[in-house]
Amino acid sequence: MEFNINKQFAAEAEVLKVLGHPIRLKIVAGLCTQECNVKHIWECLNLPQATVSQHLALLKHKGIIEGKREGVEVHYSVIHPLAKKIIAAL
């Protein structure tokens, strides 16, 4: 028996997969409460800047967050409605 996976379920599963990493989950949870720049994020997480930047790049690539340039800094915020719902449910 073959069944067709709905595109919406596939997209939702992708968001769940991306948020399944503890660092990314923590980043998104923090960004749901306030917009932050990368320096603030890596200082809060006590992780190397390169590690945080890699996770931010993936979150941005998957459409979960966006970055807005303000002068020399980029401030990140959560834009994906499902990611916001998941964090709220947790």
TrEMBL record:
Keywords: DNA-binding, Transcription, Transcription regulation. Pfam families: HTH_5 (PF01022). The keyword Transport does not apply. Gene3D superfamilies: Winged helix-like DNA-binding domain superfamily/Winged helix DNA-binding domain (1.10.10.10). GO terms for molecular function: DNA binding; DNA-binding transcription factor activity. The keyword Transcription regulation applies. Residues 5-90 form the HTH arsR-type domain. InterPro entries: ArsR-like_HTH, HTH_ArsR_DNA-bd_dom, Metal_resp_trans_reg, WH-like_DNA-bd_sf, WH_DNA-bd_sf. This is ArsR family transcriptional regulator.
